[in-house]
Amino acid sequence: MSPDDNKADKDKAASGSDEMVNRLADQEPRGGAAISNSGDGLPPLREVIKDFGLVAKKSLSQNFILDLNLTRRIARVAGPLEGRTVIEVGPGPGGLTRGLLLEGAGRVIAIERDERCRMALEEIAKVYSGRLSVELGDALEADWRSLTGSASGEIIVVANLPYAIATSLLVGWLESEPWPPWYARMALMFQKEVADRIVAQPGTKAYGRLAVLAQWRTEAEIALKLKPEAFTPPPKVSSAVVLFRPRQNPQPAASVKTLAKVTAAAFGQRRKMLRQSLKSLTPMPELLLQKCNLEPTRRAEELTVADFARLAAAFDGGEA
User: Fold this and answer.
1) Range of the domain at 48
2) How confident is the model at residue 17 (pLDDT cuts 50, 70, 90)?
3) Total structural domains in the chain?
4) Residue 104 neighbours by CB under 8 Å, 6+ apart
5) Which residue has the higher pLDDT, 163 or 61?
6) Are residues 176 and 277 in the same domain?
């Protein structure tokens, strides 16, 4: 992915999310838990952070959500959790972890890089005996199929992703092979600008490689928007939770690796016509475009997700 996928505008995205977040703030989570009465017998998250010295590290892209009402709402975005195994990346002090468990997750596997968070997460594990496993390590290096090999029932990924690695993790999950993937759905937190790129439509500035990959392999939608004030410390940009539902048989059929090559060439020079931008892919792009009945004077942002999949299939010698 382009480095731009990990950037965000300073505060432009915030205004559009205010009304939704304010409305959500007035809703009661299932079970009616409040911050002063968490429902799990554990102390408020601000006390946890203080007791264990968990000051958020900028180097780890840490921004904690301390409101259990909100973490439970995020958990519910993923759909029913009862009896499911949930993968969580970057649990930090365990705010979302507790929300997932309170919402009935059968088992949570939390992958955390920050050794400082281990003791706080172990306290949660004591309360939820047998339902929380903590794996210390780098999520970018995780073997997801091995990690979830003993899981029973559906596997769901729910995470407030560290923004510095969010796009890299997403692309890895979207490019999983074989397909359908090892997960049933994902509810993931991104910077609002990145979330907009994921669901962007052709003809817009936000439309690019990430949108094509995400929408070809999944149904993706923004399910929840959050202002910076929802986090501690507050980031400089708004955030959003995107829900991904994998398509069982992405159509048109194509190789995900070839699709990545085609979109890299096309969007690598997005202002140029396809007859020029695709020369990094093939010396005679006009022939490839003709096979797919696409005008060589069009630009990458004008093609649909299906157009790109057909190009990938034609490049590999398949039917366009």
Assistant:
1) 3-246
2) very low
3) 2
4) 80, 81, 82
5) 163
6) no
Same domain for 283 and 213: no
> What's the distance, CA 142 to chain centroid?
16
CATH of residue 112: 3.40.50.150
> Per the omega criterion (within 30 degrees of 0), is the bond before 296 cis?
no
Tokens of 37: 């009465």
- Is pLDDT of 24 > 90? no
**Residue 155 or 7, more confident:** 155
Mean pLDDT score of the chain, rounded to an integer? Answer: 89
Q: Are residues 100 and 54 part of one domain?
A: yes
Q: What is the pLDDT of residues 167-210, one digit of tens each?
A: 999 999 999 999 999 999 999 999 999 999 999 999 999 999 99
Average pLDDT on 19-28 reads 38
The CATH code of the domain that includes 276 is 1.10.8.100
**Is 223 in contact with 187 (CB distance < 8 Å)?**
yes
